[in-house]
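Amino acid chain:
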Amino acid sequence: MAQSGSEQPASRQGNVIIKLIRGIDRTLEYAEVFIIGGSILFMALIMVTHVLGRTFFRIGIPGVTEITELLIILITFVGVSYAVRRARHISMSALYDQLRGVARKTLLVTICLITGGLLFFLAWEALGYVQTIHQRGRTSSALNIPLWMIYAVLPIGFFLAGLQYWLTALRNVTTPGMYRSFTEREAYDDVPMDAGATSLDTDTDKDKQ
């Protein structure tokens, strides 16, 4: 009885931690969606405005190409974390798909830990790169925007993506089932062979008729 009583507070504490992490993760997701969506809409707006201005008034937006390039950098590296969170990243699963049970989950956790560590290393290197740019005072050629302000998204994006991989590993270690991200459970849309054969036979019979 004492053992079961001690297990209940531990499980409740674990649930509280999971809920707290999930709340922080959801807040970061909203911020990423806002940044990505807003950047795409703003990029589309300035490009359309620039084309219309050049077509009808012979006047375009100064530095539109530079602004577009900077927005693409922002979208790309913020999108890295969002793709990992939603398990929409590219994965090489030829060996992984052949495994089942504990072996499959162990490989998934190992991949998440190694990939997360690599992304943390890239975040550290990117941070050094941003500091170098800041010290040299480099700015963009057309609008004189300090480049470190734009490139600061590199270490942030790498860090958040690495954090998502480690959270995925934590979720798989502490929770039954398989998770491709902290919130996305692993699921495949399997097509039964019988269903495909049946539909093929039906089409063949119709052709014969």
Notes: Residues 2-57 form the longest helix (56 residues). The chain has six helices and no strands.
